[in-house]
């Protein structure tokens, strides 16, 4: 019976092998870093940032790497797979491609500049099912530089203006500027782009143009074309020169990434794995302490965390710090328990949106996106009205109203002109974000209130203000009595 014996041994071996394989599969499903699972545990509130206290209960959120990530692969392959827009729609794209390809280092620089943040951006775009061409928007905006600041006060890799950042839930105060947080701002930027895409009936070129010059400006250009019987697509609109070049730059970069060798360019690979980890702390912590615990150079941590204005998390609650991938676990040896979370914008955004820190400081809650949409209305300009007077009447900061309509704060208005207005509830309150040059006296003059009222409403002992502060301005009859 040798054949039967061999058959029995073979069946036995196959049974053992089956058990082993099943055991491996089961183990893979529960492993904490399973790349196929978006789950996470250990979530804490995202009320961020402060100073060092003895912290023995540090928690870094666990997070499983996402989607189709391949640690051995090239992230650019996922980018190419996700491109869905028409890259050949206009001669402006062709000319921009020719201009970019004359720089042999164009793609190499982009690859290097984007490496810390691209995996997080690509993963979030995939999660939402958006066109991957959007991953090039922060390259055109800032070269992926989180400390970039424009002359118009736009900040971060996505170049959020102060008011737009606040509207999209990015906290901005004396401790923290969410516009400079690569994770939080990525979630906010994609939220905003989705909002613009819905407003312009699913046209991504119009959404990207509106991201650059404002939805009011794009809508006004469309209205002008309709009156003239012209098409209302992006390529036919009379927009600012910067916006005319903006979308072609995004699509030209996408075309070069899609086929770099065709254009004689080299695109260095970007590892298809998270480059950053998020360290969440139950107690406040500063970057010096993180540097000591991880061995990461302080300047590197400062570069990764420009959102921390004072180099530390706020004293009133838990926060998060970005560290290079692989260094998060070291914190536990000196500070406390550690669980590592790869940097994922969706988690940071979900945490930031639930934070009550900003509302506690400003005295007013950020309204839901749906509520903001309901408050959107059109104002017909009357003789003698200005941006400032219309803004105050509707509970809006003048710069925000100008930005919404794609015009200058000082631009003279014509009787009968229409402006899009996004008012607060019954004109109850204006929340002004202080920038360089603001003082109690200048704000009082701008909003037509007294210096004494501004000081009383905001409990100010002097007329100096610090950039990043939030100042409350009440319309007539709405001010608190004490």
Would you mind describing this structure in some detail?
This protein starts with a helix and ends in a 9-residue tail after the last strand. The chain is mainly alpha-helical and 482 residues long. Helix 7 (182-199) packs across helix 8 (204-213). It is built from 20 helices and nine strands. The longest helix has 29 residues, at 2-30. Mean pLDDT is 75; it is low at 1-67, 349-375 and 424-428. It folds into four domains: 75-263, Lysozyme, CATH 1.10.530; 276-342, no CATH class; 367-426, LysM domain (Membrane-bound Lytic Murein Transglycosylase D, Chain A), CATH 3.10.350.10; 429-482, Membrane-bound Lytic Murein Transglycosylase D, Chain A (Roll).
């Amino acid at each position: 019976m040798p054949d039967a014996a061999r058959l029995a041994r073979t069946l036995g071996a196959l049974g053992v092998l089956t058990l082993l394989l099943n055991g491996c599969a089961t183990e893979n499903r529960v492993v904490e870093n399973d790349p196929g699972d978006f789950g996470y545990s250990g979530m804490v509130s995202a009320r961020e940032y402060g100073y060092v206290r003895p912290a023995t209960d540090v928690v870094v959120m666990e997070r499983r790497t996402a989607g189709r990530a391949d640690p051995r692969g090239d992230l650019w392959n996922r980018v190419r797979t996700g491109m869905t827009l028409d890259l050949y729609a206009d001669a402006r794209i062709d000319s921009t491609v020719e201009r970019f390809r004359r720089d042999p280092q164009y793609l190499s620089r982009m690859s290097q500049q984007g490496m810390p943040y691209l995996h997080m951006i690509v993963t979030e775009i995939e999660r939402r099912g958006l066109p991957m061409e959007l991953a090039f928007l922060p390259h055109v905006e800032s070269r992926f530089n989180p400390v970039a600041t424009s002359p118009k006060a736009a900040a971060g890799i996505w170049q959020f203006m102060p008011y737009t950042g606040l509207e999209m839930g990015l906290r901005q105060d004396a401790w923290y500027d969410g516009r400079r947080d690569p994770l939080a701002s990525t979630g906010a930027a994609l939220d905003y782009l989705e909002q613009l895409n819905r407003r312009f009936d699913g046209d991504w070129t119009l959404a990207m143009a509106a991201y650059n010059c404002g939805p009011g400006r794009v809508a006004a250009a469309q209205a002008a074309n309709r009156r003239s019987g012209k098409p209302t697509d992006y390529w036919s609109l009379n927009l600012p020169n910067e916006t005319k070049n903006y979308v072609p730059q995004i699509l030209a970069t996408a075309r070069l990434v899609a086929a770099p060798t065709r254009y004689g360019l080299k695109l260095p690979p970007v590892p298809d794995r998270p480059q950053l980890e998020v360290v969440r702390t139950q107690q406040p912590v500063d970057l010096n302490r993180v540097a000591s615990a991880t061995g990461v150079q302080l300047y590197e941590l400062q570069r990764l965390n420009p959102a921390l204005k004072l180099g530390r998390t706020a004293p009133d609650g838990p926060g998060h710090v970005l560290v290079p991938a692989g260094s998060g676990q070291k914190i536990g040896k000196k500070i406390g328990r550690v669980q590592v979370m790869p940097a994922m914008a969706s988690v940071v955004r979900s945490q930031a949106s639930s934070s009550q820190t900003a509302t506690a400081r400003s005295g007013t809650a950020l309204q839901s996106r749906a509520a903001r949409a309901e408050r959107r209305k059109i104002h017909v300009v009357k003789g003698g009205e200005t941006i400032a007077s219309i803004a105050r009447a509707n509970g809006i900061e003048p710069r925000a109203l100008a930005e919404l309509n794609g015009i200058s704060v000082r631009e003279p208005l014509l009787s009968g002109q229409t402006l899009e207005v996004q008012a607060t509830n019954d004109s109850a309150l204006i929340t002004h974000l202080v920038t360089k040059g603001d003082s109690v006296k200048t704000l009082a003059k701008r909003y037509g209130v007294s210096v004494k009222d501004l000081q009383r409403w905001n409990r100010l002992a002097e007329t100096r203000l610090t950039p990043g502060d939030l100042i409350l301005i009440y319309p007539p009859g709405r001010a608190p009595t004490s």
